[in-house]
Amino acid sequence: AQTVTQSQPEMSVQEAETVTLSCTYDTSESDYYLFWYKQPPSRQMILVIRQEAYKQQNATENRFSVNFQKAAKSFSLKISDSQLGDAAMYFCAISGTYKYIFGTGTRLKVLA
Amino acid sequence: KAGVTQTPRYLIKTRGQQVTLSCSPISGHRSVSWYQQTPGQGLQFLFEYFSETQRNKGNFPGRFSGRQFSNSRSEMNVSTLELGDSALYLCASSGGQNGGELFFGEGSRLTVL
Description:
The structure holds two protein chains of two kinds. Chain A is 0% helix and 53% strand. Chain A is built from no helices and twelve strands.
């Protein structure tokens, strides 16, 4: 079975600062993908970043980057130069066979 | 291109009733998956459909069922509603390959009284 654990229910960051959201996972599959999704208040969930497990290079999307430690089964998200629009629930997820397993989420607050 | 559309957006039911939720995927997407979102529990996987076939299902009781039509639209049904079924039900569509990006709808918020 696959599991995803997000141990930080809530995080705060000052505008323009950097914040890291933690995620650990467990899987017995050798081929999988990891994701971070963002759910703004009362808005649709959208993909932030995607990592293919067989790729050693960490994925980067503008101000968002991941630290993928495959042996440790860790997949953290770093947000640089935080903006007010980054305030949202962030979910870490792993793909399985025709399904995705999500963590419980981390609520990120951005302080002006 | 239109996004994923879920209807109804909000609904209130009483215990024992049944409910049907609808999801229209992005044009061309053949996979539709359903998730239950509750505070503190994150998103729990319900089931996934591809070309009218259920390919996987989560650990929910048989009261939760779904189907997919030939135009890829999907419905999920919950019978004999319980208070604990109150949640945001999210639908997501994708091309259907493992590891592909999910595109989510805004969800249907169900309140069971």
